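Appendix C: a fully annotated inverse folding record. The material below is reproduced so that readers can follow the format used throughout the book. The structure is listed first as tokens, followed by the designed sequence.
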């Protein structure tokens, strides 16, 4: 069973960082300087847990930009990403944000479309990976 909790960066950083390092820095070869952009303290942070094991994470800026969504490889395909995204959308609705946005890796576009996100940009490169901006209206 997976639980997804809103957590404080300062308290749970040691649980979040290894997930993002494994997924973005090790697997996807994102440069360290791009991954650690200094925005985490101001973001809403989510942590997905299986018992006492951290298995996924995501964050959202105060402006409603979702990012840094990562699930450890052994946990992919088991609904963890869906639970993270559903919870983040709920958090955004509770904050009365009119919409949320994200920069989706092109390979993940169908996943986000399943939740109602729409592509609103041409492809662009970020950290050497092709992305497209997607938006979900919350009203």
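Designed amino acids, in order:
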């Amino acid at each position: 069973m997976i639980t997804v909790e809103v957590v404080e960066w300062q308290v749970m950083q040691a649980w979040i960082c290894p997930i993002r390092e494994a997924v973005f820095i090790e697997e996807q070869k994102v440069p360290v300087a791009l991954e650690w952009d200094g925005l985490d303290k101001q973001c809403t942070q989510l942590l997905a847990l299986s018992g006492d094991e951290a298995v996924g994470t995501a964050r959202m800026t105060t402006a409603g930009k979702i990012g840094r969504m990562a699930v450890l490889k052994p946990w992919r395909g088991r609904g963890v990403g869906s639970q993270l995204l559903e919870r983040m959308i709920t958090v955004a609705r509770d904050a009365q944000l009119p919409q949320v946005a994200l920069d989706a890796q092109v390979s993940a576009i169908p996943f986000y479309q399943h939740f109602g996100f729409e592509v609103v940009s041409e492809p662009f490169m970020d950290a050497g990976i092709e992305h497209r901006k997607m938006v979900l209206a919350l009203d």
